[in-house]
Specification:
It is built from three helices and 16 strands. The chain is of the alpha+beta class and 296 residues long.
């Protein structure tokens, strides 16, 4: 009798596994294990500010707040340029612009410098936007006015993997501003990550966690749906003075899960569109390997 019970129990295991595979929350279960619940956490640099400068957009603009048109006429040209956002790549191989913590990275010689001045206090902001070469094209989970899937084109930095946190090194000079990282998910929604105050002197890393409710994956293959960093925003506190602001940024990094799914049969195509989507997934996997080997 006891032997029979063991037999029935063992025979029921495959059937129980099948129901688990069908009804469980994880969509991809195989005989080799659960292929979607793996995890590989890495710290990766996605922007080093070594080549192309970002652009700066101030709000409110001329002539409401920035003094391009209302500056005193006797200002010389050197002083006048403080009143418009000025942004560029700073540092050389001889005089490096980087925090000491990144001194072991021999490719990191430069940083991003920003200078601006507002005339009136208030809700003043300066948004730093990625260069035009970092162009993103993708379809989002929305319909346009013609009832077609909406296609977006914008500039941004694609963040690899399923991101847990975003960080950036900041060289402050005691200005009473806060820093925000704006990220967009695959559905087209923007999420503002509060990174904290830049009211300090010297280099300091600022970071923000990505909330767990920000969508970054689906239950099917390819699973990962990348976030895109669309801008960094410096926001004045209401009581901030209107003195000139000079600030520098270096080494945007992410703490991210770069685990990727591999399974037997992934090379079988349904049609050309299916083949294209999987090719993009393979290119994405290659980019992850480049990141993890320090090639970025």
């Amino acid at each position: 009798m006891r032997t029979a019970i063991k037999f029935v129990t063992l025979a029921a295991i495959p059937l129980l596994y099948s129901f688990t595979a069908i009804s469980g929350k994880s969509a991809i279960k195989t005989l080799n294990g659960d292929d979607t619940d793996g995890m590989e956490i890495r710290s990766l640099q996605v922007e080093g500010f070594e080549a192309e400068p970002w652009t700066a957009v101030a709000t409110p603009g001329d002539p409401e707040s920035i003094a391009t048109n209302v500056a005193p006429k006797d200002l010389d040209k050197t002083d006048r340029k403080y009143f418009v956002p000025d942004v560029g790549i700073k540092g050389t191989s001889a005089q490096k612009c980087r925090p000491q913590n990144l001194a072991n990275d021999e490719t990191n010689n430069k940083c991003l410098g920003v200078r601006f001045k507002f005339v009136y206090p208030g809700n003043n902001t300066v948004a730093l936007l990625p260069p035009a070469s970092k162009k993103i094209e993708r379809y989002i989970d929305q319909l346009d006015e013609n009832n077609n899937i909406k296609k977006q084109e914008f500039t941004g930095v694609k963040l690899p993997g399923k991101v847990k946190a975003v960080s950036v090194w900041v060289l402050g000079r005691g200005n009473d501003y806060t820093l925000e990282a704006w990220v967009q998910d695959w559905k087209g929604s923007t999420h503002i990550l509060k990174m904290g105050s830049v009211n300090f002197v010297g280099w300091r890393p600022l970071s923000a966690k990505v909330p767990v409710n920000v969508p970054q994956d689906v239950d099917t293959y390819p699973q990962t749906k990348n976030l895109v960093l669309t801008k960094l925003v410096l926001r004045a506190k209401p009581h901030a003075n209107t003195e000139k602001v000079v600030i520098f940024f270096d080494a945007i990094k992410v703490l991210t899960d770069v685990y990727d799914v591999h399974f037997d049969g992934a090379d079988v195509d349904f049609d050309d569109l299916d083949k294209k989507e999987k090719a993009e997934a393979r290119e994405y996997a290659k980019s992850l390997k480049k990141y993890t080997e320090g090639g970025k």
